[in-house]
From TrEMBL:
Function: C-type cytochrome. Part of the cbb3-type cytochrome c oxidase complex.
Domain Cytochrome c positions: 148-226, 233-313
Protein's name according to its UniProt entry: Cbb3-type cytochrome c oxidase subunit
Keyword DNA-binding on entry: no
Organism: Corallincola platygyrae
Keyword tags: Cell inner membrane, Cell membrane, Electron transport, Heme, Hydrogen ion transport, Ion transport, Iron, Membrane, Metal-binding, Oxidoreductase, Repeat, Respiratory chain, Transmembrane, Transmembrane helix, Transport
Encoding gene per record: ccoP
Amino acid sequence: MSTFWSVWIIVLTLACLGLCAVVLWWCMKDKMGVEEGESMGHEFDGIEELNNPLPRWWSIMFIITFIFGLGYLALYPGLGNFAGVLGWTSSNQGIKSLEESKAAADSAEEAGLLVQYDREVRFKDERFNEVLKPFVEREIIDLAYDAEALRIGQRLFLQNCAQCHGSDARGGIGFPNLTDGDWLYGGEPETIRQTLLHGRVAAMPGWSSMGEQAIEELASYVLSLSGRKVNEREAAAGKLKFAACAACHGVDGKGNQALGAPNLTDNIWLYGGSRKAVIETLVNGRAGVMPAFKDTLGEDKIHIISAYVYRLSNPEKPAE
């Protein structure tokens, strides 16, 4: 805020408070020239106006409110650029990254500033550490069948994962379904945990340089792998070109979880299984990003979410 507008707000605010104080003082004084309780000479519809003072309780509450307002403006920000004597602020402003947020929080703490958001985050972390402590020492596969752990995991999932995967975890176009047991990188408990900790970045390249005809033939072959009815001659030609894809998807097209390459034979499609969608994938590639949550959630919460996600596609506990 510029200095002009800061001064303008300060002057306007204090002027309004001063005017309210004058009006209150004036109303508490008897300036009518008529004895208290006597008629003011006004009558309407049988109702006569008398010279009565303001109720004492009303005046006292108004004074208290006025003093509170002055105290609040002195302690907290509200008068233009004045930050208040407590140095309180709702949050660190202008933050663009997690690193900046942490640095700003440390700097504010060293300076003795009261940043409400930072205080609430610290309180939340302390509280969560207490709540999660009984669970983090247990195996993920064990927590996946613990009712209380699942309740916590579901809430964490809804807060952090449902935006992409949906509240029912069934995903959408470009966002994997977590309930069907089909995994790009593997569905073992530790693999799920690693995905949440470090994220995933897809690396499906575009093959537009192959030319339109080659893309059509390759699409026919890819669709045929999942039993779709296609032009056999195109599929046969596409099989020869599939050698470029086999490095990731395998010669049989069944994918490679080590690379996150999907199985092309199961008719489960992350970006859609129509011919148009497959051609778009082949031409432009795919570069989906699963963000890493290690720094934002921490390992304890991820441990609980991993159990919840594992349970989604494993409703029955595996035999020991």
